[in-house]
User: Fold this.
Amino acid sequence: MEGYSDRHRHSVEACAAFLRDRFPFVPKIILQLGTGLGSLAEKIDPALLIPYAEIPHFPQSTVASHQGNLIVGHLNDRPVVVLQGRFHFYEGYSTKEVSFPIRVLSLLGAQTLVLTNAAGGLNPLFLPGSIMIIRDHLNFLGENPLRGPNVDSWGPRFPDLSHPYDQALIKIALDSAQHCGLKKVITGVYVCIPGPSLETAAETRWLRDCGADAVGMSSIPEVLVALHAGLRVLGLSVVSNVNDPDNLQPILLEEIIDTAALAAPQLERLIVEIIGRIEK
Ligand code: HPA
Assistant:
């Protein structure tokens, strides 16, 4: 175990050194873009774009709907680093690997993580295309990226999760949604399941009973590492489908991607507005 955690630490530090040499400035905000939501990257004036494949120790994305680029630039006058494409537990990665980019970018000076994902709606008030601001989460992955020896210089052994999603950022997101005229934006609880199979009707009912408003297969490992590293976190889910346990319909990946892509322009406007309200 010691060997594995030493290797992980070494990989993180080597990757951070590689990127530190290339970054033209310190990006304060990490923007991680999820399924069907990668197009925001085009709004960024790129100072640097590196394909994941060219970054030492970076995992490689195996999912066709995710591009794999790290982009440094400015969005609404804020220095950002965009992760265009993420890694998932269901691809076979450990949660340490999934969250590797966040750990590296935190060591390079990032202070805020803004992430997006596509999720299945469990709250019957949702419609396909609704945007949910994540207020809290349920980690049903059965794995935690912080397991194993703690690197004390990276963060505390037992990170507090009483307010995992930054209250001030949630307020900024709600105000920004109002400013953008987006009516369907509400806060909710996100549950992460391992996947890749989608939920049965019984699982859907149970997840709802557990208090979840939306279900997906991502993001929580990254959130846990970001919190451990002291970053402020904002999570936005696009509800790509709504799952009714009493009338469960087949959930098709194409529909998830299409609905997320339809909601993408709204989400992009929202994120640009939110970023502009984060202090420099
Ligand atoms: N379940 C799990 N993950 C998802 C879903 C879903 O219904 N929709 C988008 N990601």
